[in-house]
Amino acid sequence: MFIGIDLGTSGVKVVLMDAQGNVVATEIAPLQVSRPQPLWSEQDPESWWQALDLAMQALSAQQDLRAVQAIGLSGQMHGATLLNSANQVLRPAMLWNDGRSEAQCRELEQKVPDSRAITGNLMMPGFTAPKLLWVQQHEPAIFSQIAHVLLPKDYLRWRLSGDFAADMSDAAGTMWLDVARRDWSDVMLRACDLSRDQMPQLYEGNALTGRLHAELATRWRMNAVPLAAGGGDNAAGAIGVGMTEPGQGMLSLGTSGVYFVVSDGYLSNPQRAVHSFCHALPQRWHLM
């Protein structure tokens, strides 16, 4: 048995599956989005955790989770979750659909003229890097305290296991990843006055990043199982429908819509608004 955790924009879903991938049970806990100003879209990371705990308790009340062997994570991409050196959240997370950082996008592309070649993408307000530049310029007291920058699902990972980790597919949506090399780009980080020390450790999506805290295992009546790195929502969904080999493609329609194609090498065409990301599998990339 396995558990999948998906941190969506409108809710947290947990799915219990058997070894053949058949869904045994599902629980969902809703989330709310805060829009305090035009173009802003935020959520409190604590609400993610409370929703996950609620869903897991509901699942464990109905199912015997002692046979679960591992947990995998997926979720909304691009969100900026900022922690200080005491691992306290510094401000509400700025989400993928937050549009306040248009000016910072232009500034970053001017600072790093070859940013599109490095990241495989046009700089857009939805991505993480321009959000951090906005924080630096508009909330400098918060920016000066940043010790860790986590993507939404990886904040849940930290709460689950204490590990600061990210998978390649989600990291590719930050605009700090050298997508061809599958490593953080020091050039892109410096453009935001950030460093590798503030970034999570990178893993391929099928790698194990840590183990569930013993107290959570007790709370949810299961074993302290390992956590898989997982993937961003599009990459994880693609694997779920079998998009793993070069040339395979799919059309995904949800809160947003994308055409997704798998590649076995880094291909970049941002000038035509084609996004290039690492897939959630080793030696695979995808275009959207």
From TrEMBL:
Catalysis performed (reactions): D-xylulose + ATP = D-xylulose 5-phosphate + ADP + H(+)
Protein name: Xylulose kinase
Gene Ontology process terms (BP): D-xylose metabolic process; xylulose metabolic process
Stored Pfam families: FGGY_N
Highest taxon listed in the record's lineage: Bacteria
Record family assignment: Belongs to the FGGY kinase family.
Keyword annotations of the record: ATP-binding, Carbohydrate metabolism, Kinase, Nucleotide-binding, Transferase, Xylose metabolism
The species this protein was found in: Enterobacter agglomerans (Erwinia herbicola)
Taxonomic path: Bacteria, Pseudomonadati, Pseudomonadota, Gammaproteobacteria, Enterobacterales
Enzyme Commission numbers on file: 2.7.1.17
Domain Carbohydrate kinase FGGY N-terminal: from-to ranges: 1-240
GO MF annotation: an example: ATP binding
Alphabetized Gene3D superfamilies for the sequence: 3.30.420.40
Top enzyme category: transferase
